Amino acid sequence: MTGPGGAPTARLLLTGDELLRGFIQDANSGFIAARLRDLGIELDSIRIVGDDYAAIEHELRLARDIDGVDLVVVTGGLGPTHDDRTSEAVATALGVALELREDALEVVESRVRAYGRMRTPEEVATFTPGNRKQATIPVGATWVDPLGTAPGYVVAAANERAVAVLPGPPAELRHAWSGIEASSQLLALQARVGERHERLVRLWGIPESRGSQVLVDLGHEDSPERRVTICARDGELEVAVRGSDVAAVDTLVEALCSSFDDAVFAVDDHRAVVDLVGELLRDRGWTLAFAESCTGGLLGAMVTELAGSSEWFLGSAVTYSNAAKVALVGVAEATLEAHGAVSEATAREMARGARVAFGADVAIAVTGIAGPGGGTPDKPVGTVHVAIATPEGEQHLPLRMPGNRAIVRRRSCAIALHALRRELSRPT
Questions:
Q1: Which domains does the chain have, with CATH numbers?
Q2: Do 14 and 28 meet the contact criterion of CB atoms below 8 Å apart?
Q3: C-alpha distance from residue 301 to each of 234, 298, 367, 405, 421 (Å)
Q4: What is this structure's pTM?
Q5: Which residues make Cβ contacts (< 8 Å) with residue 191, sequence separation at least 6?
Q6: Better-predicted residue by pLDDT, 40 or 345
Q7: Rounded Cα gap, residues 244 and 13, in angstroms
Q8: pLDDT grade, residue 158 (50/70/90)?
Q9: Which of these, 155, 173, 175, 172, lies nearest to 164 by C-alpha position?
Q10: Cα separations in angstroms, 59 against 72, 230, 379
Q11: What share of the chain is helix, strand, coil (3-state, %, to 5)?
Q12: What is the pLDDT, as a whole number, of residue 1?
């Protein structure tokens, strides 16, 4: 099976009863999908199975022998316990034996000792069987240095295909993937990637239906030479255009930019909006502060995830109570009594007060009702007021948003940051 333009294909198989039963959420598929995309390998599907030897083997045989997938990426089941049976299933599906790799065992034991184990004869006896299990992999596999105690590996299959096996914990998986990606098996797959071209147009405030209609109006139809993927999240709309026909891809991107005009906020730029805001602030030499009520510090957390944000971000006052709004950012008690905490007047005073309290050039204030309780007929759940204060004036955005508490908080942050981005993008 080949992807668009003859690209190699991959399937991701996530294993683990904890995933299948909902005890933990998948934290790996997005990373693997993005890395495969960057390599030009088309991911055809993502599947989840439990810690079941027969189910894992069945999925491997299905992918390789029936569906003809070029690369199967398997995560999880490389631990030292009885239910970690991924390596057994891989070996059976590929028709090869398992072998204890002494070089891998040496590394596994060194990791265990680094954790303060295997210091007594009793601990050696306890940990040795599990260590040997983790160092036992299919014959012919190339193993990669583990971050923890579970070496990931890649093994060639028939017809220039391969199976890559990674530990389940996200940090260990990401570490192992860098070694897998550099392996001869993955390099051989990458060599089969034909000419490809991918562009990205990012829009703000455009619904999916409008994006789809514009594509129809432009006469676009998906083909191996040019395909379009649309993704909406928190008011942003991403339109990815990819294919083997470079000119056709570029032509459509130009047409989309022309059609959507100032709704386009980034082209071929994957950075989060908070990063774009930071760049605009640096360009102006301005600093930023927040006064947050219903978002409870979420804006500040988003900013401080960025390395180097201390160049332009001064701080955030989490003014959840009315008393905090008065004490920390100087909202007048009379304003709260007359208009309430969730109001335009309060949001504006919060923004002004944050500018003064932090000595910032720009401040954003957010106050609202995230739910599930606290709403009234006049101010239902999802009512949010955003205010922005800059050296050039103030801006107020009244919002009414559907969704649960997490959605209201997250979208409030996105709207506030995009409003500031647009404000900072105006010619000076």
A1: 4-190 (3.40.980.10), 197-267 (3.30.70.2860), 273-425 (3.90.950.20)
A2: yes
A3: 17, 5, 17, 17, 18
A4: 0.81
A5: none
A6: 345
A7: 28
A8: confident
A9: 155
A10: 9, 29, 52
A11: 45, 25, 30
A12: 54
